[in-house]
Design goal:
Radius of gyration: 22 Å
Number of strands: 2
Strand content: under 5%
CATH topology: Hydantoin permease
Largest sheet: 2 strands, antiparallel
Structural class: mainly alpha
Number of helices: 19
Bound molecules: phenylalanine
Length: 476
């Protein structure tokens, strides 16, 4: 074992850093979007199933691999299966780490821009146009009551298609991430997770209280709690699995990397459960912030990715037109929340790549982190430009942003997850895996048996079926 290796200093640090990786834009931006498209409660139920049966077992596999090998995502496979092709799973993960950090930071950069705008009060009182125009632009159904709405769609489109402005925000966001990662595990990742995660949880609870008291909020709550099974299509099911993997950060070796800093005493199963619970709770609570708010002004919930950047600022303005100060605080808190969530996740993406470069090429953490930041700035700029001047440039029919998003969420994550369950469930010695899960016999083996069934059978078969369903039509 590598005794000089950095580690998390406390159990709380382990949970908050891992939950920080999981809780991100995926929970607050992507989850409500998918719920809106997938028909509310029905999507949520399917999503819960995937978290429990597929994503959580993959998380456990990542923990077993990372903690036992104490190495970065590639090095871990090299150590546990020297000279075997399993290393491909690690390489895919690191590649995925670069891609995901690049496109994620673009959206995080938009978030930073909206945070600054809301702090300056510039989200309030923009020119009004009627709701039908907005809805047409968003592809959402216009409400019957003909409410007035502000022109955020135009502002959003103008911003994201601007050639340099979003790139500056992207760069600032990447530098923030860099700053934390370069400081190392205990002084960087653990310290800032301990600071940011409690803030994030407090803000979420405040906003939930806010939005639940809005007039008409009950419609939104109903949408979240009453399943309408007629809306469930095969795409919704595929979307729910993609969302479960993305939200728990599994399949790329991010948690292999984090768990390589866990101690011998860390309980893997308990930690995985805690992370899953926190992540799911935050996703559902975000739904409780967004849908009551959106329904309270009668906008349809299926607004797509523009939901938090176009629909919400509109809603803040409309709802709080009588109380601008409350609207100001609500909007600011919301974007700060989104920013904190994005940052704790981007740190973990950065760490997959930084740990690999620093260990594989035996170079210092700071230098490795600088390489990662620089490469992701270049790749991220390509993604950002694909909303503006490079709109026409496509690879396999997709712009850079979509291409990276697709490659990671539809391809690398499920494939990585599948390989990791096969590796832990079938390649590694069963006793070795049990020792890891029970901390060398300190915990009961019996209670681990159902988990082994999930890891060996349920998760790989489930992932394979869904993955093939998604991939095969692309080639037909
Ligand atoms: N889980 C993060 C989110 O929900 C995204 C993420 C993906 C983080 C992959 C790390 C690795 O936003």
């Amino acid at each position: 074992m590598n005794s000089g290796r950095a580690s998390f200093g406390s159990h709380l640090g382990v949970i908050l850093a891992s939950a920080g990786s999981a809780v991100g834009l995926g929970n607050i931006w992507r989850f409500p979007t998918e719920v809106g498209r997938g028909g509310g409660a029905a999507f949520i139920l399917i999503y819960f199933g995937f978290i429990l049966l597929l994503a959580m077992p993959v998380m456990l596999c990542e923990f077993v691999i990372g903690r036992s090998a104490r190495s970065n995502a590639v090095g871990a496979f090299q150590k546990l299966s020297p000279g075997k092709p399993w290393i491909a799973a690690g390489i895919m993960g690191v590649l995925g780490g670069f891609l995901v950090l690049s496109f994620y930071s673009v959206v995080a950069g938009w978030t930073l821009h909206y945070t600054v705008q809301s702090a300056l009060g510039q989200l309030q009182g923009q020119q009004t146009t009627d709701l039908h125009a907005l809805s047409a632009c968003l592809g959402a159904k216009a409400s019957e009551n003909g409410l007035q709405s502000t022109d955020f769609a135009q502002a959003f489109n103008a911003f994201v298609s601007n050639p340099w402005q979003p790139i500056i925000y992207l760069a600032v966001f990447l530098l923030l991430t860099h700053f934390v990662v370069a400081r190392g595990i205990q002084h960087g990742i653990e310290r800032y997770s301990k600071l940011m995660m409690p803030m994030l949880l407090v803000i979420i609870l405040l906003l939930v209280c806010f939005s639940m008291t809005m007039p008409g909020a009950i419609e939104g709550i109903r949408f979240l709690l009453q399943p309408s099974l007629s809306e469930v299509t095969p795409e919704v099911i595929l979307g729910a699995m993609g969302q479960a993997f993305f939200s728990l950060s599994v399949g790329l070796g991010c948690l292999v990397t984090y768990s390589s800093y866990f101690s011998e005493e860390t309980r893997l199963v308990k930690s995985a459960m805690n992370v899953c619970i926190i992540d799911t709770l935050v996703a559902v609570l975000s739904g409780f912030i967004i849908f009551p708010t959106v329904f309270s002004v009668g906008i349809a919930p299926d607004a797509g990715p523009g939901l938090v950047f176009i629909t919400l600022p509109n809603v803040f303005n409309l709802t709080f037109s009588e109380m601008p100060l409350v609207g100001y605080v609500f909007a600011l808190l919301f974007y700060v929340l989104l920013l904190l969530a994005a940052l704790t996740s981007s740190i973990s993406m950065h760490e997959i790549c930084t740990a690999f470069i620093s260990e594989h090429f035996q170079t210092g953490r700071r230098r490795a982190a600088a390489v990662v930041t620089f490469v992701c700035l270049l790749l991220g700029a390509c993604c950002s430009l694909s909303f503006g001047p490079w709109k026409e440039i496509t690879v396999f029919g997709r712009g850079f942003f979509d291409l990276f998003d697709f490659t990671v969420t539809k391809f690398l994550m499920p494939l990585g997850g599948l390989l990791m369950t096969l590796f832990v469930g079938w390649y590694l010695d069963r006793r070795f895996v049990e020792q890891q899960l029970t901390n060398n016999g300190a915990l009961s083996v019996r209670s681990m048996r159902p988990l082994l069934v999930l890891i060996r059978w349920v998760a790989p078969i489930g992932i394979l079926v869904i993955f093939l369903n998604e991939i095969i039509p692309l080639f037909l």
